[in-house]
């Protein structure tokens, strides 16, 4: 029950007029920025993170929670109205959502997405309140070798499980890990990969990496492809739900939440699998199977709830273990580090007020989003009509501003451009970006844990293998690593038969 | 690698128009790629880049003096050396995958690649980085927005300039003065 008291205290900290205003600003700009076509949630959060730098930590996290939920909602709106999923977790929403817009039911699709996101977000945040302390209790018993093993698992899993091409996932991961080693080594004070540039001594800020790869890369990619044409925006109609829409939505909302949260809470569980599972489940359970593929409301309600619940779920490993498992959590972890706060089991002891304020602001941001955005959707839709030249010029403008604001040095703008060109190349060659971001964040943390383990064992490599936890984790890693070999062997055997058949 | 193999099959069908579109503006390096059903050869540049990065990482790590202490038995050296070796290894496997016709997810290789626009945007970006401290964010940011919008196809020069100045001023007052974000005032110091 201590948690409940702490949470109530957290609400007490958030519920001042000034903080509510900050939450309101966060929700509004989060929605506005991620509504812009081509902007995913993570990109919006990376772009907006620097504007929280001038605030106190508590207020910064209140604004951040607002941006988080606003950004999630904005991403699903573009998926429904424009047929452009801003991130892979919205791909499923597009399938039925855009069909509904075509049929003139865009308003209902947006309403079920908004209310479903609210329901899922609220339930998942409640689950977060109860699950995180349990995870913390488990994590407190872990030593450096166990942490190292879990981090290696998160790295290997993001590189190999989520994308379609393992080799490209690992290429992206290694690039991120190499970026992460730039700067002064924390233990010995030696400079690594700085090549004599003093501005690189502190390493490259994760915000600059995220803004460069996501935002600048996307703007350059659109420019290179000559896609600066206008999208057709279909009319939305009134944003409301009729009685039958409610009846058909509440089941998918709850099932989507139940699927999304556990996946989000697992290292590298992601939002793609639960949104897809939710879609398949709803299609099977629905009484309106014939509507699927032509704009079935269940196909929007379920995946959207799963998406939001999974996003809240990723905060469990992020807060309890310091493990970021998606791009949004990676950027959030970067925000914590900016304030000199290290997420992990000790966070709840050392910064308990701050954590519970953050969790309370998640509830507030979520509620505010529902109250504010439902009536404001017609205004947001106007943002979709901004001509593309202005839109992408604006992205370059805000990205430069954000990157400069991190350290107030022009050098970062050059780094930003180079990373933007890397992002452009990654889009051109279909290399996934999540492993890069996770590698930049987790790489240095994993190295620190490995060196701590070896310190304890006096340099003996057996120090990397701790107790049963690390044994189990290495077993899972081996399974992930050996899986493609099994597939390869099976494929070889079918390939041998193929020429014979042809 | 499994997915890449799967996508290689449909990709082979339209490989003819793929390579036709790729050859010219894409990298210039695969201009001599005449094999109609060949893999997406521009990807070898990625492999080359990864291998080069691996070499750079190892060269830099070799420079670090052997630095071990009782409280840090392995020192700062091994991690970059392992990373460098893995980078070179991944580059080799990547090249193997490309040679076998592998492609990334959603890699859109058809259509032109507009180097001119990208180059102009990069030039604007560099210009902004060079003058931001001297001219200040309001002027350099406005010029960045104005130039980028025109490069991207806006033809209403004065309206765009107006929007750029409004954005520059609004962000400066809103973020630098309102929220305490560090943006330079530059030569307008004292006027703003």
From TrEMBL, chain A:
Keywords: Membrane, Transmembrane, Transmembrane helix
InterPro entries: DUF112_TM
Spans traversing the lipid bilayer: 20-49, 61-82, 109-132, 138-162, 169-186, 206-224, 315-336, 356-377, 389-407, 463-486
The organism's place on the tree of life at top rank: Bacteria
Residue span, DUF112 domain: 20-437
Pfam families reported for this sequence: TctA (PF01970)
Listed name of the protein: Putative tricarboxylic transport membrane protein
Organism: Glycomyces harbinensis
Automatic annotation (TrEMBL), chain B:
Domain DUF1468: 47-184
UniProt superkingdom: Bacteria
Biological source species: Glycomyces harbinensis
One Pfam family matching this protein: TctB
Keyword Transmembrane helix attached: yes
Keywords for this protein: Membrane, Transmembrane, Transmembrane helix
Region of interest called Disordered, as start-end residue ranges on this chain: 1-35
Residues annotated as signal peptide: none
Composition-biased stretches (Low complexity): 1-14, 21-35
Protein's name according to its UniProt entry: Putative tricarboxylic transport membrane protein
InterPro entries: DUF1468
Record-annotated membrane-spanning stretches: 42-66, 78-96, 116-146, 158-183
